[in-house]
Amino acid sequence: MTTTFIPMGDGGIRETTSGERDEIIKLIGEIDELQKSIAKTEEAKRPAVYDLITRKILNIIKISTTPEDRDLWMRQLADVVMAAVQMNEYPDGPKNLEILYTNTAGGDNRELAAYIKSRLIMTRYYAEINTGGDQLKPQVAWLENLEQLVTEYDKTEAGADGMLLLGSYREMADQLPEARKWYRAALVASGQNPKLKSIADKATGALRRLDGIGKAIPFQTKDAAGNTINVAAFKGSPVLVYFWDSRSTQDIPEIKALAAKTGLKVVGVNLDPSAAAMNAVLAKTPVDWPMINEPAGLDSPVAVYWGVQTTPLMILYDKEGNLAAQNIPGVPELEKAIK
Question: The pTM is what?
Fold first, then answer.
């Protein structure tokens, strides 16, 4: 059975009846059970489970009584569909999400339309990648679609976040003028909206990195024991600020060896959600440099300060305490930057 996505009504407000509240609670419980059952369901039958989940979410949307509730559940539905397609378990996901977007794009809730379109773009990308064909084609399409999104919905949260993502993409491709352009666009789009402060702060942090070469950018934080870590205290030695998590540990042994050979000082910033994940890695590869765990990950103050969009990320100070290099792609490049 294929789920039929339908318009969500006129957005008016009415009072919730006790029967509707009970029905919503019942549907939420059923959705939870269905989600738990997916791991135990054979792959060929998982699309049908996702169909059931989406139908039940649609039922909640239909009987929700406020625009805010409907908005919340439509966003939830878009996230569920996107995640299912990413796992290659919901072939009808892109088509159904396209219908959901069409039903919202004509309304006056541009924030919701932009959010759903951003999920649709990623859903199409995942679906194309899952075919196992040319991997460049879906990446080019994703980039074109994302640039279209930020143009059409430039004053929305999804639009500003898309600009930040484009900046990160261009930076990783070493296209720094383009990266600066998009980070600045994200800053402009979000800077006047208090609700988008986190995006503005991340864009500011990314520009701090890109435009800070040769400058004594201050950086001070505290480790898990409450000790102050200030890169200025290491003046006289090169200093590496190394962002990582338990999925990006490949450079730690080489950095450890390089530090022993060159006198490089290292400040590790772990972005795992718990110190336990960090400590499990360090138990296998002990290090003698300060290590900070930031459980908020990419949204932590330290990561936002530097505009960190992905891990690992290396930032190098020279012996004079000036920023020497940033977003260093690997340890060989780090060694060259030290020299």
Answer: 0.87
